[in-house]
Every structure is written in structure tokens, then in C-alpha cells.
Amino acid sequence: MSPRLDLALQSGLVLSQPLTVIGSTPDHDLSDLPRETQVVQPFKPFHDHFAERGFAVVPETQDMCQDAIVILPRAKALARSQVYQACSRSSGVVVVDGAKTDGVDGLLKDIRKRVPVEGPISKSHGKIFWFQSDSQVFADWAAPENQMADGYQTAPGVFSADGIDPASALLHETLPDKLGARVADLGAGWGFLSAGLLNAADLKALHLVEADHAALNCARTNVPDPRARFHWADAVTWRAPDPIDTVVMNPPFHTSRSAEPALGQGFIRSAAKNLTRNGTLWLVANRHLPYETTLTQTFAHVEEVAGDNRFKVFHASRPQR
Description:
This protein is an alpha/beta fold. It is built from 9 helices and 16 strands. The longest helix has 14 residues, at 76-89.
């Protein structure tokens, strides 16, 4: 368990089953918790991590529980909605555990204005505290059912929740009219790029591959087309049912605060494996990210076709097996 949770249990916190944990990542060791504990994790790689360890894992809160633990994310709106989720599902204690860099101090201050709080306990640059569940008190923290941004449905915590990402907008402006019959959007998010592909000439199948379950649910609304296929999957390991003519992507480059160029490099290799022999890749990335070597190792032809001082757009073709 986390050092803060372990210390809280030693200091009088008692947790009862059924227990739900919301927001845990592989950095959080849950090995001391009973395997019947339900773990809510919408990010597919993290979801699979806990499933492999025998936990009952779901992408969104479903069942009622006695107690709940919320491990804070960075996004304030998402943190608040997770507190509401925990209160709406649990009948007992709600525990909040978070780092100072994720805003735990501010959240503690806000929660103290609404309910009596026990703890808090400070350790390892963070805090843990708990309180009696009360969903009515936190009803205004519920995620809006139809959160809109620039005419698209989004959700708290998803990438670019407040509007169209400028890198994706640049890629959209650069794409040609013809992309082939089978197109895949790796890391599709809430579907901006895919929505713009619906008028592409000769399009027959559009695969939206996204690891964030919440973002993919938004994409289902934003891309209402029978040719769209939605895949809750890790784009790095996803395999298309049929070879793809074109892959478009604005790959993520971190799952934590620090940049992880290897993640985008994995997207590039995945694109190459899923493309036809003459397939093409259209990629946008932050200019500082080192993708050129991976592109030239993976594709026979690579060129930068657009960009500015922040972003660069690559067109690559003929994947090398």
C-alpha cells in the first residue's frame, strides 16, 4: 500500500468491504488489499495492470460499496468528480490520498468546508484524509453529462478537455482529401481528428483507438457514423482486423508529469505494423520530441510537411517490415 494509506490504517482508519479504489496507477501498490476490492481505472494499460494482479477492475464506477479510496489525479475537475463518484457509490467512509503537486491541499480545504474531516496525515510530500460519505453535499462536483468544448463533447480529465488541441488542428489542416478505404486514428481521444475524416473520399472503415475509456465514450458521440469502429485499447499493442491504408495520430508523450518519448515511438511502430505495404502515416508532435530516428528506421520515406515553432507534421510511407 501507499505509505500514507498504511500510516492512516495504523492511526485508526478502518476500511470495510466491499471496497472501491478510484484512480490508482501502477505506481500505487495495492497488494495488501483483498483481491475482491474493486479498482476503477479507465486507462486501459493501467486497467490491465490491476486485472493481471487479480483485482476486480472496471473502467467506471458501477457497484455500490461500503468504503471508497480516491487517489487524486492532477486535473482538478476530474478530482472533484471522482470524490462525487465515491460518495455516490459508498455508504461508509471516503478516503482521499494525494500528492501536494496534485492539489491535495486545495481539495482538503474545499472538502473541509462541506463535511467534517478526519486526519489529515502528511507523509511523502502528500496528505491522506477521510470523511463520511455524503453524495448530496458533493452533488455540484458531479461531472456534467454533456460537457461541450468547441462544439464537441468532452469530459473532465480527458486530453484537451477544454477545446481543440492546436497540434491536432494543425494536422487536420494538413491532411489530404484522400486517405484510403481503411483509416485508423491511434490515440483518438474524444474524436476531433476522426470527426474531420468522415468526409474523406473512399472512406469505408475508420478505427478509433483510445486507451482512455472516458475519452472514447465522448468519441462515440462526436463521431456518429456507421463506418466508425471504436476500440478501447492501448494503441502501442493494438492490432487492426485488416491492414490499414492510412494512420493519423497525435500521440501522447507522457502518462505522468515527465515526458516519455518512448510512448510516441511505440505509436509509430504500431502504425507501421498495422499498415499495408504501401500505407502512409500522418503524425503531428511537439517539435522537441525525438521521433525522426524512429520514423526513418520504420518507414522507407519520411518528410516533414508542415509545422511551426511548436509543432511538426510528418508524412511517412512504405513501412519497413
